[in-house]
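User: Predict Class I SAM-dependent methyltransferase's structure from this.
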Amino acid sequence: MKCSICGRESALEEKYAGAPHSLMSVYNSDHLNLRDLEIYYCSACGHTQIPAHISEEYYEDYSMGSFWGASFKKTREQQMERLATLAPKCERFLDIGCGVGHYLELAKKYFDEVYGVEPSITSANNAREKGYSIINDYFHAGLKFESGFDVISLIEVLEHLEQPGGMFTQAAKLLNENGVMIVEVPNGQRIIEKRLYYNLCTDHIQYFSVTSLVVMAQRAGMYVVCVQEAADPNLLEMYVKKPAKSRSTFSDKRQSALARIISQISPKAKVAAWGAGAESACFLGMLEGKVQIELLFDSDKSKHGHHIATIPIVKPTEEDVGRFDTIILFANAHKRQIQSQLQQLGYTGEILTLEDS
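Assistant:
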């Protein structure tokens, strides 16, 4: 069996007897519906899958997951807060497989417009009754939307699909530039490692690992922000971002940064820099012969008394920082801390940063 994520050959891991089949069928039934499974494992990406035994029509009146307990809701609230922070804008939100609209209810606190796609007619109607705009259909390339989305969610959807990568890739196409998508799936890595037999059923045919989630995202051209166990360790969550199209080369960006810095420095200004770490060599190489740096300030005592390209590295003192008209921050990661230190030292000159230039 070919791995549905990376395409490599998966090996038969186990023949497993008596797994629950079609979970919705057990309600109001006099007997359990069981089926034997073949479990396949891909050693290349750590993905596990079973052959599909359920038709697409099964999900047209599906209601599993329509109730959220307190712990589930807390996990999803944390996700939504993070999505709102990562999103380029909080305007348009799409939940694929939205069920009765629980995630949309959380999203409307942060986003101007929220939309859902849901194949179950019962769940879709429940969400509509709450006032949400819902497309009652399976998610596919033919669905039409007015414009792209800043955030898209795929919460416990991909584990049901024969080709999860196809849906993920199609969803990614609907993201705006720098848009964010969250994927949540059962923690297949944990299920397989701990042999959690009670998590095997024919409703779930894909069991993702951290690696297989990353492979799927990268094949769709997405930038992976984070993959981790959710607050509930039985779930994996992945945050990805649609990268902006590169409009410049490294050389172009460095030249642009140099031009901006030079334009902000007076010709007769005395200039120092703060930061003698790895980035400082890059910045000094860019500024060499164009901006004269007299001193490098750094809070790390072990660097004091040394130099980089003949420029002394010294402890920042009120007297020394006060000698300079301009201080360029080389330590981008500590910008706020350094600005606060300069303020405490009474520095009133100009502070320049190369960050995001």
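The first strand starts at residue 11 and ends at 20.
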